[in-house]
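Table 4 source record.
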Amino acid sequence: MIIQQKKYTYEELLQQNYQQAEIIKAQAKQLAELKLLEAKYFEQQHQLDQLKRMIFGSRSERFVPAINPNQTTLDLAIEPAASVELKQTQVASYTKTEVTKKANHKGRLALPENLPRNEIILQPEENVEGLKVIGKEITEELDYTPGKLFVNKYVRIKYAKPEGEGVIIAPMPDRVIDKCIAGPGLLANILVEKYVDHLPLHRQLQRYKREGIHIAASTINDWVKQTATLLLPLAEALKNEVMHADYIMADESPIKVLDQNKESGIHQGYYWVYRAPIKRLVLFDYQRGRGKDGPKELLRDFKGKLQTDGYTVYEMFENHPHIIMFGCMAHARRYFEQALESDKARAAHALELFSMLYYVERKAREQNNSHDERLKLRQAESIAVLNQLETWLKKNLTEVIPQSPIGKAITYSLARWEKLKRYTTDGKIEIDNNQVENSIRPLALGRKNYLFAGSHDAAKRAAAIYSLLGTCKLNNINPYTWLKDTLPKINSCKSNALINLLPR
């Protein structure tokens, strides 16, 4: 049997090739659509997992794999990436037990000796006449009386000069606000209660009303405005001090501001926060947006080391001739912590390496190491862990879906790897910029109570107050005591001497 093959013309072959090419093109399009759907699925699943954790889980990042506290040398052999899928990193589990009795109880709280004592003598009900006293039992009770308002009554005696030449009278002491009924202690308390204790002005007014003092809302708002305006030159001196530090951390946080020019009436502004950890200073700089203009202008003359998170605006300082950029390891770690639900094996392995890095930092703190000693410790232990982590990241980059949570975590870290590991070159630099985030927390708490700033100028004045009172906290200075002492001095202080009034 002879099978004759059909002969195709050139046109027919060309048509077949065209049809095959169209089929391949359609298949490629379908494959791309499938990959896109897969990426969207992972993204939605990640969002669902995060929502579940927000509702049912702990709010803090508590995944810290167990590390032997006696470990001095680390096994840093590079593990093949394939093993990551087979090896499950053991996550520490905790069992809640009820403790009926605390061990090594240090006894009752010792009350400070400087507190005033109201001595109350208690005599037995029985007749003790003629009995010999053999001792006494003393029990102390800590009690509280709400702070009392008082009035400073300035009495200035007038003296007549002889022969009608005029009158002699003592001048009034310098007032914080001219012709203002509020003294420095009251003004200081109002600011501290609002910006440190997060008590809005209307609640303060309610408290004063209970004390029989009726203050108008417009009046107390005006007191805050004028006191904050008085503090602006002092905040400017603080800014100069921060900008002359050789190492600062930076972060930003939103603040809603009333704005009549906005259709909604609300403008989304931002506080750019800069902390000088070694000098123990913090600066809040209000800007209307989150663009580059604010930090570009403020850091125009800065020369030193700048530590930030991965926000892209800070990339403009990458090639700056006088600025060295450092990354935040906590932000990189956070991405892997968020990926635990979708890719537990990989995320847990990465988090274990991160925990090793933080173990070195914890050991340096416990040993109270100097900057030089911390640098030597990092070079001896942290660099090897970083090398292992980098190798693992590069290996797994090609094995994960880029848009998945673990893919985003790996991409984020590798894109900023040079800045992330740079902290091992300088013992002064922290492993992350969590310190500046800590300085922002009072702002976040305040927002929940007073909700917004009354204007852009009000937001700027609030930034000055947050800067000064935040610096008080970093230096363990009572903000009320500092404000009460400082407010009467500002008006008479020369501009070049304002630096001496800063909380140190």
